[in-house]
Design brief:
- This protein is α+β, with helices and mostly antiparallel strands and 379 residues long.
- The chain has a domain of 181 residues: FAD/NAD(P)-binding domain, CATH 3.50.50.60.
- Helix 1 runs parallel beside helix 6, helix 1 runs parallel beside helix 9 and helix 9 runs antiparallel to helix 10.
- The protein is globular, with a radius of gyration of 21 Å.
- The chain starts with a strand and ends with a helix.
């Protein structure tokens, strides 16, 4: 017989933990499954760009104070294209916000959520399957001394490794992202740069005195570029960017393959959020922010559900409708940027430049873009 719980969350990353914390004061028993060793989270090198809207969610979860000291505010966003005219600058002052966003280390965010004190029932086990059922779903996991199960009225899948392959759409961008911390010659002045190069989108995020690099390009080229000697890599980066003077040093370089994946359906009593629901290209830094909104709005649905409605078809279909606009907007926005800006076709390059110039000249249009990036499609 399965051990019972009310809500099982599969995935102990930031999105799964955020949901568990948002449900900590509910009347339900919440069980969180964490399969990845904590040591792996501590060494994760990825920078995260948190929108100001995500900061507000983290404040409500009482974890922002632990992050604030080490977070670097983004006060300006500069968008341009290599070998072409047109640029856009967006500022926090124009948007009447204290910051457009913040850059934090993945490891710091994970630690702040983990140490918040709101996580009650955490199982360190590998989940091998989730079986949907009409009255309850079952989580199958490897735990001493043998395979075990837990039944729940609602199972939330927040681990991308447990996507239902038959119900998931995958678009391979044939790109990988080189991630590293680089030291610029000139101060970044709390500016985040998005540079569309002939190789692919190049993002530089202010991170303390340095900048965090996320450079997307053809997978084969990314592997070769990441393995270049430091001086050759810095020279290549300087030619592609060239706005912060010379780059003087670079830390360890890692590569991540890039694709767009999104779940199209979930079984009874189950719902996917975060990377299990959608995994986006890192251009514009929308992935984690979208996942955090998934978690926050699902927690609101749970809190508002009538007694006995937890995990019901009506509750979950209502949640999917609520998230459709924001989720579809985030997926469509990032996918369009990759497709439009990841080539060097001259007529399209001219059209891109005109589009950037027009956007920069229209404050209402910039405000629209800022609000959508900050608060989502319904912001």
């Amino acid at each position: 017989m399965s051990e019972p719980t009310d809500i099982a969350i599969v995935g102990g990353g930031p999105v799964g933990m955020a949901l568990a914390l948002a449900l900590a004061d509910s009347a339900y028993r919440v069980t969180l499954f964490e399969s990845r060793p904590h040591s792996a989270r501590v060494s994760d090198p990825r920078p995260l760009a948190l929108s100001y809207g995500s900061r507000l969610v983290l404040e409500r979860l009482a974890v922002w104070r632990a992050l604030e000291v080490g977070a670097t505010p983004i006060e300006r966003i500069h968008v341009s294209q290599q070998r072409g005219f047109g640029r856009v600058e967006m500022t926090a002052a124009e948007a009447a916000l204290p910051a457009l966003g913040y850059v934090v280390d993945y490891a710091r965010l994970h630690a702040a959520l983990r140490q918040s004190g709101g996580l009650r029932d955490v199982r360190h086990a590998d989940v091998t399957a989730v079986r949907s059922g009409e009255d309850a779903a079952t989580v199958v996991f490897d735990g001493p001394p043998s395979e075990s199960t837990i039944s729940a009225r609602l199972v939330v899948i927040a681990d991308g490794g447990l996507r239902d392959a038959a119900a998931t759409k995958v678009i391979d961008y044939r790109q990988s992202a080189i991630v590293a911390v680089v030291k610029p010659e000139l101060p970044h002045r709390n500016t985040a740069f998005e540079r569309f190069t002939v190789s692919g989108p190049l993002g530089l995020l202010p991170s303390g005195p340095d900048v965090a690099l996320v450079w997307s390009m053809n997978t084969a080229a990314a592997g070769a570029c990441a393995g270049e000697p430091e001086h050759a890599f810095l020279e290549r980066l300087g030619k592609a960017f060239g706005r912060l003077g010379a780059f003087t040093s670079v830390g360890p370089r890692t590569c991540f393959p890039l694709s767009l994946t999104y779940a199209r359906a979930s079984g009874p009593r189950t719902i996917a959020i975060g990377n299990a629901a959608q995994s986006l290209h890192p251009v514009a830094g929308q992935g984690f922010n979208l996942g955090l909104r998934d978690a926050w709005e699902l927690a609101e649905r749970v809190h508002d559900a009538a007694p006995g409605a937890l995990g019901s078809a009506a509750m979950l279909s209502g949640y999917r409708r609520q998230r459709r606009l924001d989720r579809g907007g985030g997926i469509g926005f990032t996918d369009a940027l990759v497709r439009i800006f990841s080539n060097d076709f001259p007529p399209l390059q001219l059209a891109r430049g005109l589009g950037l110039a027009v956007l920069d000249a229209l404050p209402p249009a910039k405000d629209f873009v800022i609000r959508r990036m900050t608060f989502g499609a319904r912001g």
